[in-house]
Every structure is written in structure tokens, then in C-alpha cells.
Design brief:
18 helices; Cytochrome p450; 2 domains; three-stranded antiparallel sheet; 501 residues; disordered N terminus
Length: 501
């Protein structure tokens, strides 16, 4: 038995060496980008990248220039840091630079969903039909009703709501946006009080999964955490099952459309359950954190808060709640808030940090804006990290670390879209939603949710920080590359409904 164990161990080691040998022996070829395999065989720079992707990439950029290939956990990633060269990569056909394979692997691991051909097109079509235009207006109405329910309770305004309350701003925003978004998209039962309790239970579990998510993706969980993730996945698959979802009233047409399409394709109910979990994450994972940053910046910058409130009065009028009433809102106002739109773009510029990936399907020639050409190998991955290369570029955005609420406004109050680098107009001057085939299909609804919530908060509520001098928290380094960053610590604030005058 001991002998066979030794033989099997040696055989396994030999297989691993054979599989990994090409990566271990890899050398830079003529016309390829600078190659940096890192200090540890196979792992390469994986630990440094995982510890703080922003600082790691900044160091690699300084060391190697606008294009470089690094080894991360046995895989090779070529990062492009020149935003003037993004266009060809974003527009390239799927046959050459593929986004789908990478996303399929990720959703299978994280949500257990086995993607089928046409899924991405289906999601984009559903989002175009039901998260934009007339469909968006329907969802906005549902979202206002859900926000009223979550923030005011089933019976509406009550006198104690005009008393001061204290909470953590991140928890407050995430909790409210998650529950309201969940109810708007997934519908209600006949018992709204029970719906609120259920939404709270789901949020608590969702938040726990969210905290484990970055290390889960990087395979850095401990044994107990792996077990916990598996249990959470099973819980969401059961809680969000098609069977339970179809028992609800007023499920969004967006979700109904996609579930119908899956049924027509013969997708098993168990796999549909996993698809619903994926859609919950996609729709609710970033709106709460974005709202946190937006409200924090407004409270830290009184001139910005004043400008947004003045604009809100212009488009909404003075708003006060009467007893047992819910929020009222003119949805046309969402199209006439250039100041708030600038605040949102500035918030996203400062705090949205996604990484865009493409898989090189066949040996590929990368043409830079400078005229320089690089050869990329089949099987490698191309990566863009626009937070560092665009959002924090002082040539594109002067004083890039400073919040300027009017950065995206022209002097006449219209939206500013002209930004330059090296004397050339840059098309991708802010990329919070990704771009090209990987752009977030639900971005219009997400932005509408956040704007609606922020306008309700600044219109109906008084808001103050418990400690006015508290600095804006740095971003949690675990979240680099995963959409909207999250704060490294909580910020306490006080709020109350504006009293009747």
C-alpha cells in the first residue's frame, strides 16, 4: 500500500510537471510584450496581485510601460494601460478576442450556472426591452413603491420617523437598495410585512456571500469558508427557485422573459434556479455600495449637497410627507438632473474599478495608438484596468483623487463629454460599466435606482455625519477588479425625515 502510494504520488507529480512545463519554460519572443513571470514558479505574481491589484499594476506599469504580460497562477495576462489603444480591443470580434468563455467559467464557479449558447444575447435583449425606455418607466414605478415600503414601512409615514436615527451609512444604503431592488424585480406575496422580513433574511445571507466573494474567486478560502460558500449557494438556489418565484405577484417582465426563454430551451428547473441567483447578484451587487459613496461625498462636500438639493427643488418642488403617506415622485425629473448626473459620474470614476478580460483565441497582433505592434499568444488573456489607466490619469482628469461634483459639467450646465490625452480626444474617458460586448446590460436601471434613492434622501431627509471630520475611507483592497469598490471601514451618520412645517 505504501509502495503504491509513492508510485501514484510520483505519477501525479510527473503529470503536474508536464502540464505546467510550458509555462515554466516560457520565454519572451520577438515582438511580444515585456514578460514578467514573477518570483514563484507557477504562482508568478498571483499573491501580490491578489493582495492589492491597484498597487501591483501601478508598479508593473512603471517598470514595463503601457503593455506587459504577467503570470498569475499559471496563466498569462497582458495588461494594456494606454486608453488611446482600448478601441481596437473593445471592438475586436469574438473569434479573435473572446469574452464569453471567461464569463462562462466564472458564472459556473460562482453561481453554479452552466451557461448555454445565446445566454449573453438573451440577457442583453431582455435588458434592452425591459430595463430601458417604457420598460424602465414601469420598473421605476415599482422601485418607488418598494423604496417607500422598505424605508417607511407598510403603513407609510409615522411621527417617529421624524426623530433622529443613527446607522452605518454603508449598511443603510446597501440594505435599503438591496431589499427594494429585490422586491421590485422578484415581486411580492400577499403579505408585505412578511415580504420585508424575507428580504431582510436574504440580504443578510447575500452580504455574507458578498464578503467571501473575492477570496472565493481567487481560491483563497479556508476549509470552513468553502463549506459556508457551498451552503450559501444551496440556500440561494432553494430560496430563489423557479417554484417559489412563480408564486409571487408582479415579478418583473425582465425576469419573466428570461425564465420563459430558458424553459423554451429545455433548461432544467434546477439550472434555472442558479440562473436566478446569478441575476440577483448582477442586479443588486453594486447599487448599494455606489449609493453609499454618492451620499458620503455629498455629505463631505456641502457645496455639492447644496447644488443637488437646489436642482431637486427645481425639478421636484418642495417635498414633505404627510402622516400615513408614501413617497411621491415625478419620474420625468430623472432626465433633467445634470448636476446629479455629474455627481454620479464622478462617484463612479472614483470608486468603480472593474477589470475587463478577453481570451486570445488565436495568435493576435495588437496595434497600439503609437503605431507599435505586439504579438499575443493564443490562450493568453488580455486585460484592461481602466480605474488606474483612465480614471486616475491626471492628464485626462486633473487632480484625479479629488471629488469634484461638477467635473462632468460644461460651463453652461450641459454634460461634459470632451476629455483629452496627449492632445487627442479620448472616447473611453470613464468606464464604470465595462465596454463593448462585456458592458453591463442593466446599467440604465442600476443608475436609475441609485438616482431615485439619492434624490429621495436629499429631498425628504436631513442627513449629517456623526463625525464631520471623518476621512473618506480608503477602498477595501480585496475588491479591486470586482466592480464598485467597498469601504475599508464603516461611516456612521444620522438621518431623519424632514418635519412638517
Amino acid at each position: 500500500m505504501v509502495l503504491w502510494g509513492a508510485v501514484l504520488g510520483a505519477l501525479l507529480a510527473a503529470i503536474v510537471v508536464c502540464l505546467c512545463l510550458p509555462g515554466l519554460l516560457r520565454q519572451r519572443k520577438p515582438q511580444e510584450p515585456p514578460l514578467d513571470k514573477g518570483p514563484v514558479p507557477l504562482l508568478g505574481h498571483a499573491m501580490a496581485f491578489r493582495k492589492n491589484a491597484f498597487e501591483f499594476l501601478k508598479g508593473m506599469w512603471t517598470k514595463h510601460g503601457d503593455v506587459f504580460t504577467v503570470q498569475l497562477g499559471g496563466q498569462y495576462f497582458t495588461f494594456i494601460m494606454d486608453p488611446l489603444s482600448f478601441g481596437p480591443i473593445i471592438k475586436e470580434s469574438q473569434k479573435k478576442l473572446d469574452f464569453v468563455k471567461y464569463s462562462q467559467q466564472l458564472v459556473l464557479k460562482v453561481f453554479g450556472y452552466q451557461s448555454v449558447e445565446g445566454d449573453i444575447q438573451m440577457i442583453h435583449l431582455a435588458s434592452t426591452k425591459y430595463l430601458m425606455g417604457a420598460g424602465l418607466e414601469v420598473l421605476n414605478t415599482a422601485m418607488l413603491d418598494s423604496l417607500s415600503l422598505v424605508m417607511l414601512g407598510p403603513k407609510g409615514w409615522s411621527p417617529d420617523a421624524s426623530c433622529w436615527h443613527e446607522d452605518g451609512l454603508f449598511h443603510f444604503c446597501y440594505n435599503i437598495l438591496f431589499k427594494a431592488g429585490y422586491l421590485s424585480l422578484f415581486g411580492y406575496t400577499k403579505d408585505k410585512e412578511q415580504d420585508l422580513l424575507r428580504a431582510e433574511e436574504i440580504f443578510v445571507k447575500f452580504r455574507r456571500f458578498d464578503l467571501l466573494f473575492p477570496r472565493f474567486v481567487y481560491n483563497l478560502l479556508g476549509p470552513r469558508e468553502w463549506l459556508e460558500v457551498a451552503q450559501l449557494q444551496h440556500l440561494f438556489h432553494k430560496t430563489l427557485s423557479v417554484k417559489h418565484s412563480l408564486e409571487r405577484d408582479s415579478m418583473s417582465t425582465w425576469l419573466c422573459y428570461m425564465l420563459r426563454r430558458l424553459r423554451e430551451q429545455g433548461i432544467a428547473p434546477a439550472m434555472q434556479d442558479k440562473f436566478i441567483f446569478m441575476m440577483l447578484w448582477a442586479s443588486q451587487g453594486n447599487t448599494g455600495p455606489t449609493s453609499f459613496w454618492a451620499l458620503l461625498f455629498l455629505m463631505k462636500h456641502p457645496e455639492a449637497m447644496q447644488a443637488v438639493r437646489e436642482e431637486a427643488i427645481q425639478v421636484l418642488g418642495e417635498a414633505r410627507l404627510e402622516p400615513k403617506k408614501f413617497f411621491s415622485f415625478k419620474f420625468s425629473a430623472l432626465k433633467h438632473t445634470p448636476v446629479l448626473d455629474s455627481v454620479m459620474e464622478e462617484t463612479l470614476r472614483l470608486k468603480a474599478a472593474p477589470t475587463l478580460f478577453r481570451v486570445v483565441e488565436s495568435d493576435y497582433t495588437l496595434k497600439m495608438a503609437s503605431g507599435q505592434e505586439y504579438l499575443l499568444r493564443r490562450g493568453d488573456k488580455v486585460a484592461l484596468f481602466p480605474y488606474l489607466s483612465v480614471h486616475m490619469d491626471p492628464e485626462i482628469h486633473p487632480e484625479p483623487t479629488t471629488f469634484k461634483y461638477d467635473r462632468f459639467l460644461n460651463s453652461n450646465g450641459s454634460r461634459k463629454v470632451d476629455f483629452y490625452k496627449a492632445g487627442k480626444k479620448i472616447h473611453h474617458y470613464i468606464m464604470p460599466w465595462g465596454s463593448g460586448v462585456s458592458i453591463c446590460p442593466g446599467r440604465f436601471f442600476a443608475l436609475s435606482e441609485i438616482k431615485l434613492f439619492v434624490l429621495l434622501m436629499v429631498t425628504y431627509f436631513d442627513l449629517v455625519l456623526v463625525d464631520p471630520d471623518i476621512p473618506v475611507p480608503p477602498c477595501d483592497p480585496d475588491r479591486w477588479g470586482f466592480g464598485i469598490s467597498q469601504p475599508s471601514y464603516e461611516v456612521c451618520f444620522r438621518y431623519r425625515l424632514k418635519p412638517l412645517e
